[in-house]
Design goal:
The chain is α+β, with helices and mostly antiparallel strands. The protein has two domains: 198 residues, Glutaredoxin; 121 residues, Roll (Nuclear Transport Factor 2, Chain: A). Helices cover 40% and strands 22% of the residues. The chain is built from twelve helices and eleven strands. The protein has a six-stranded mixed β-sheet with strand order 7-6-11-10-9-8. A five-stranded mixed β-sheet has the order 3-2-1-4-5. The longest helix has 22 residues. The radius of gyration is 22 Å and the shape is globular. The chain binds glutathione. The site of glutathione has 11 residues, from loops.
Length: 329
C-alpha cells in the first residue's frame, strides 16, 4: 500500500493508522498546490480530487476520502484492533465520530488555512472551531481516553490530527490535551520527525512497543505491590533516582531506593486502587525512549519522567525523575 500525504494535513491520520497496523507500507509526499507528487508524477492523474489522503491499494487502485481510508486500513488489519467490528453499534458510533470530525470539525478549520482569508473571517472561524471542540471536550469530560468503546480507534487518530491544528491556528485547547491518542507512540511517530515520517521510517518495532508497555506495567505493579524483586527487573542497576519536589530533593542509587521500597507497606495491601496513566511515550531512536506518567499512591499524586534504554533485547529504566504533591481529593 502507498499513502499519498502532505505533512501535517489530515492524511496524517491515515499515516498513524498504517503505523498502528504494523505492516510495511510506502508513502509519497504531494504538493497539492503544484499538483505533483514528490516523485514528479501528476497527482490529479492519481487522485482527480487533488487532495490528500489517497491510498494506493495492493491491486493498484486508488482509495480516497480519509474516513473511508481509515476504515479500510482498520478492516484489512483486524489483528491491530483499530476499529470495532463492522455491523456493531460501536462501529456505527465510530462512523458517527469520523463523519462529524470530517465534515464539521476538520472543515471548520478551512478559513484558518485558506490563503487570502480575512482576519475577520479567521476570527469567526476560531470561535466556530472552539465551539466544536467544546462538544468534543464534553464527550471526554468523564475522563475517558478514547472516543468509542473504551479503546483506541482510527477516530482517535483523526481527532488527534485535527486537534493538533489548534497549535498553529491560535486556538487554545489546553483542556483537551490529555485525549488518549496523544500518549500512543504510533500517533507521535509520524509527527515527531517530518523527514522520518516522509520516509516511513519508524525506529520502533512492534516488539519494542510491546516490551515498553510490559515494562511500564511491571513498573506500576511493582510499586503498587512494593515488590523490589519485580522492580529490579524494571530498573537498570545504575538507576539514577531523583526526587525533584521542592524542599524534598533526593538523589538515590538503586540499592538505597529498593531498601526504601522494602520498608513500605505495599499500597495494594493498604487497599489502595492502582491509579496511574501513561501520558506520553516518546521513542527518540531505536535505543532510547522517554515516558511521561502520573500515578497516585500513598496519599500523593506523582509525576514521573522516565528515561528508558534498550540493552540488547531488553528495555530498562535508567533514570527516574519525579515530583509529587499531596493527593487531591
Ligand atoms: N473529503 C476529503 C478532504 C481531504 C482534505 O481536505 N485534504 C486537504 C488536507 S487536510 C487537502 O489535501 N487540501 C488540498 C490542499 O491543501 O491543497 C477527505 O476527507 O479525505
Amino acid at each position: 500500500m502507498k499513502l499519498y500525504y502532505k505533512p501535517g494535513a489530515c492524511s496524517l491520520a491515515s499515516h498513524i493508522a498504517l503505523q498502528e497496523a504494523g505492516r510495511p507500507f510506502d508513502i509519497e509526499a504531494v504538493d497539492t498546490t503544484a499538483g505533483r507528487t514528490e516523485g514528479g508524477a501528476d497527482y490529479r492523474a492519481i487522485n482527480p480530487k487533488g487532495y490528500v489522503p489517497a491510498l494506493r491499494l495492493e491491486d493498484g487502485s486508488i482509495l480516497t476520502e480519509g474516513p473511508a481510508i481509515l476504515q479500510y486500513i482498520a478492516d484489512s488489519h483486524p489483528e491491530a484492533g483499530l476499529a470495532p467490528v463492522p455491523g456493531t453499534l460501536a462501529r456505527t458510533r465510530m462512523q458517527e465520530q469520523l463523519n462529524w470530525i470530517g465534515t464539521e470539525l476538520h472543515k471548520a478549520f478551512g478559513p484558518l488555512f485558506r490563503e487570502g482569508s480575512t482576519e475577520a473571517y479567521k476570527a469567526k472561524a476560531r470561535i466556530d472551531v472552539a465551539g466544536k471542540f467544546d462538544l468534543v471536550e464534553a464527550q471526554l469530560e468523564d475522563g475517558r481516553a478514547w472516543l468509542v468503546a473504551d479503546q483506541f480507534s482510527v477516530a482517535d487518530a483523526y481527532l488527534f490530527v485535527v486537534a493538533n491544528w489548534a497549535n498553529f491556528t491560535g486556538i487554545d485547547l489546553a483542556e483537551l490535551a490529555p485525549a488518549g491518542c496523544l500518549c500512543r507512540p504510533q500517533c507521535r511517530a509520524p509527527l515527531r520527525s517530518g523527514r522520518d515520517a516522509r520516509r516511513g521510517a519508524d525506529p520502533m518495532t512492534p516488539t519494542d512497543r510491546k516490551q515498553v508497555r510490559a515494562l511500564m506495567e511491571a513498573y506500576f505493579e511493582g510499586l503498587h505491590q512494593a515488590d523490589s524483586a519485580m522492580l529490579r527487573d524494571v530498573f537498570h542497576p545504575q538507576l539514577a533516582y531523583v526526587c525533584a519536589t521542592e524542599g524534598d530533593e533526593l538523589y538515590l542509587d538503586l540499592e538505597t531506593y529498593m531498601t526504601r521500597v522494602d520498608g513500605r507497606e505495599p499500597p495494594a495491601r493498604r487497599g489502595e486502587p492502582r491509579e496511574e496513566e501513561v501520558l506520553e511515550v516518546a521513542f527518540v531512536n531505536d535505543r532510547m525512549a522517554q515516558v511521561n506518567a502520573r500515578m497516585t499512591m500513598m496519599g500523593r499524586d506523582f509525576h514521573d519522567l522516565l528515561t528508558l534504554v534498550r540493552y540488547g533485547a531488553e528495555w530498562r529504566i535508567v533514570t527516574k525523575v519525579f515530583s509529587y504533591v499531596p493527593k487531591k481529593d
